[in-house]
Design a protein that fits this description.
elongated; 405 residues; 21 helices; mainly alpha
Amino acid sequence: MEIRHENYERALKHLQRATAIPARRADFHDQTEPVQARLYKSLKLWSLYADLEESFGTFQTAKAVYDRIIDLRIASPQIIINYGLFLEENSYFEEAFKAYEKGVSLFKWPNVYDIWNTYLTKFVQRYGGKKLERARDLFEQCLEQSPPKVAKNLYLLYAKLEEDHGLARHAMAIYERATKAVPPEEQYDMFNIYIKRAAELYGVTHTRPIYEKAIEVLPDDQAREMCLRFADLERKLGEIDRGRTIYSHCAQICDPRVTADFWQTWKEFEIAHGNEDTVREMLRIKRSVQATYNTQVNYMSAQMLSSAGATSGTAADLAPQNENVDDMRLLEMQAAQMAAKNRDEAIAKGRDILFVRADTIQSKLAQLAHNPEEIQLDDEDDDATGIEKQTVPSEVFGSLKKADE
């Protein structure tokens, strides 16, 4: 009400009285205590008090209000930042840095991130390279316990400081640390920044170990992209053999059925810079990789079928019980059961043949030996007719037979 009627001095007196520490202190969240005993810890009331002091009070009174908020340990990160900006506006830079230090000691990660970010940014803007060792200590203190989720911006700020005011090799070391400190989903972006800065500071040839590290660490999809970029870099540098080696290494993680673009790129590379032997070698590697992936798929399918064969019932019986099983899974189960059934029937038939009686076997053999088209010969005539003997003329033997014989 006093503020609405522009009685700012009386409003300040009311706020000063409301925020006075009572004789018997109480917890702000203790509902059993009266409101008058807990009002001195109300952050909203203190924030209003600080705003009025900044607007209508003096520098000393406003600073005293902020200090009391920090002493009562009811400050929020925004209150600390506002306090630092207020001191900076009045050209009390060291006092502002002390306020940030108090805020850092009050909060933990990740709540302290905004304070650290403001503190480091303001410090670098104020001193630049004049107090480089102090700035390095601040960054190391900040990064010592920073979580990976917020580490990227802090590492980039640290590396920028080293590039502008420090040593380039220190900046490269910071970028390398950043690739390990950030979460996996941000590693690819961090490696791209690292490669770009290394190329600008040292030249493109210095990026080779960075590419190799990225290919080793990143997932397959991102590593494949890095391999293509690395091979293209070697091609531009005239290192055709190195580029071919990179393609050959990357081929081990490229299924030809899925990554047709990679194989087409390699084929165009060999057509432009290779010969018939290199193209044949590329096709041989492609067939080898294709066979490897087919073997893996077949092995996985066999494992799935074997696990499905252990279940009982048809696919229709399994469907109500396993609501999450898809149609392909049901078909695989049904195929496994049919295969098991056919195998059991084959075994049963084999047992019938092994245990057939001897007379049954002879009758079956007789039936197989009987030929309905066989010509029947009459044996009675052979028995009735005798064998007639005749003399052989001597001319038949010729000179083999002697005259007296």
